[in-house]
Predict the structure.
Amino acid sequence: MGIIKSNDIRGIYPDELNDETAWRIGFYLKEILGCDRILVGRDGRGSSEPLFRALTEGISASGAEAVSIGRCDTPAVYFATVKYGFEGSVMITASHNPAEYNGFKVSRKNAVPVGRENGLERLGELISIAPDCASVSTDIKGKISFLDITADYTAHVCKFAKIKRKMKIVVDCGSGAAGFYVKKIFSSLSGDFIYIFDTPESDFSLHNPNPLKKSVHDAVSEAVGKVNADFGVCFDGDADRAVFFDENGNFISPDIITAFFASYYAGSEDGWKAFYDVRSSNCVKEFIEKNGGTAVSCRTGHSHIKKIMKESNALFAGELSGHYYFRDNFFCDSGFIAFLVMLSAVSGQDKSLSTLLAAINPYSFSGEINFKVENIDRVISRIEENYKSGKKDTTEGLRIDFNDWWFIVRSSTAEPVLRLVVEADSGENMKKHVNELSAMIKGCVI
């Protein structure tokens, strides 16, 4: 089915994902997860309420118990899954997608994600042949109950705060799920927090749920300048991502934040390890190693990153998308925890954020550039042939390194686009290679 993605279930409501499908998903979760008690959370989208009702009714019809924690952010579901010993959970959200989308993030025991390879493909097969809910009758239905996680969740997140001085920060909740818990969590912390877009919207009419959009950057940048803040943060639609802005309102590439987190963990333990995705700047590895850690590149995707972190007991990991993962958060990602690590690291140093970051990154980085092309594999193959003199890395897509620059091209798992990243030792060199690769991708050369 088209709604079954690599790492979750997602589609437009109600054209691609509707209440009937949600009921079927709920009905077969017991079989896929192998448990009789399933935790459920939901974001603030307009379609999340009807999908929640249908999903939990399906779970109940299967004989399993559905335990709701109410409206929340995705990291809250991960936390509750582990904290209270659930063997299966579902978060109803479409993350950073526009309001017309919705979906389900499914996890097993210990918040291990269920993806296409370990359950979602089978779930798709079952729901495609399942009877409709009206035709199913059962003598034993599971109950639907509620669990309040507020006190425990707040205490867990606040454990990451090591704030050394009071700072002023603009907190953009993105009109999304961050608004459900953000003030409850931050109210006990030292700091002057200026909240914007902190009321969850059902349709995201005031704020795009994707924090990488330029329109979002403009709103945060203006707010930072207006109140003379030390920095700003913006969460995505379900608060599992965070992006940051310096005291001048400038957007900070998330890979630089991954590097900066090393200053929080420096000296914490011998031989600590961190992962960064293969698209990240060379400065990430360099700065982590400078602070006593071991840095290893990896491919993107939360199911893969959580797995390799657990296998190596890594302290943290970061993606260019703004996902940050933490060992002490059950190897899961969290926008709130990323913010508290950031706040703690900055507050421990008597310099502005822009000054601190300037010392980390000597390179010119293009960021991710997207292209719509008809035959992605063919384009990548031609690029590989043209740049065969460089050092090749196929961890994800194609990355080729040279002495003074590197690039990566890869296919998106979410949409039919080719993504390009270029980094070089100077802005002029970076722009030169962006232009030549862009010309190749657009067909001007090949």
